[in-house]
Amino acid sequence: MNDVQPMILLGPDDVDALATSAVGLAAAAETARLCGEGTIKTGRVQVNGDISWMRIMAGLVDDLDLLGYKEFHRVGQRVRYHVHLFRQSTGDPIATIDGRRITGLRTASLASVAARHWAGTAPQRVGLIGSGEEAKEGLRALVGAINVSEAFVYSPTPANREAYAKEMTLETGTKVTSVAEQNQVMNSCDVLYVATSSHNEPFLSGDELGSVRFIAAIGSTMPVHRELRGGVFLACDEVVVDTMDATHESGDCIEATELGWDATSAITLGNYLMRPPLPAAEGRTLFKSIGSVEQDLVLAYYLAQEAIRTGRGTEITDVASLRIMR
């Protein structure tokens, strides 16, 4: 049966042009709301080979009439990401979108939505641990979400942190200072964004938090990965998670539980946004993120809608023919 529907292709240049902090924050807030209502269904599968692997994560988002999946695969050092969106009510295609920016942007945006709820309009000093792409997305989103007065960055490689400070000062208009020791960041900021590879030993303990009152930790997403020692969770008075899966899928959460942290005390971001935040004077707040497919799908959908509004992307005839089954 011939029922051809147009769809949009968004390549990397399109996504870079569309991926503003405003779009990311709007999508993140929507995701938190939808997850709080419990109407999203998800699933995932991973296939591993000798030199390659592929992961597919799928979801249904009823409120947006959306179904789709994110696919990414790795062969050696080569990695590619795509997100495919369809209309849930008809199965018609909406878009195929390059996914390189999506993971970092949705992660940074969710953390920044949590930080915005905590900070309100008060000026905040921001500290960053890490100087890679995730740390760049983090500062972009935070500058778009809260009143950042200044920022400090630490990473083990001097050249990397110096380059980060220079680049992000120019890009965001916020003064970013490179510091030589991690504790200089901890003693100079109110909001801490932790964005490391987390493949090595955890580097932050509960007795090293200095002046920090709000922590966003986004680097440890699997049981074998840790960036925070478990004591950080015990040193915080409120723990917010993007998904409850974080409490048993992240290595730092697992260690925290082994040390006595009650994982059932964590609250989801959707519920956190519906109640007053813990004031800084009354304790520390930790936002822990591992990511989930509905975050990718909602952000991809927002990017597709922005592409339609601004005329970005390439419209093509659907490549998947329709079959009517009995």
From TrEMBL:
The record's annotation in InterPro entries points to:
NAD(P)-bd_dom_sf (IPR036291), ODC_Mu_crystall (IPR003462), ODC_N (IPR023401)
Cited Pfam families: OCD_Mu_crystall
Sorted alphabetically, the Gene Ontology cellular component annotations on this record are: cytoplasm
Q: Which residue ranges traverse the bilayer?
A: none
**How is this protein named in the record?**
Unannotated protein
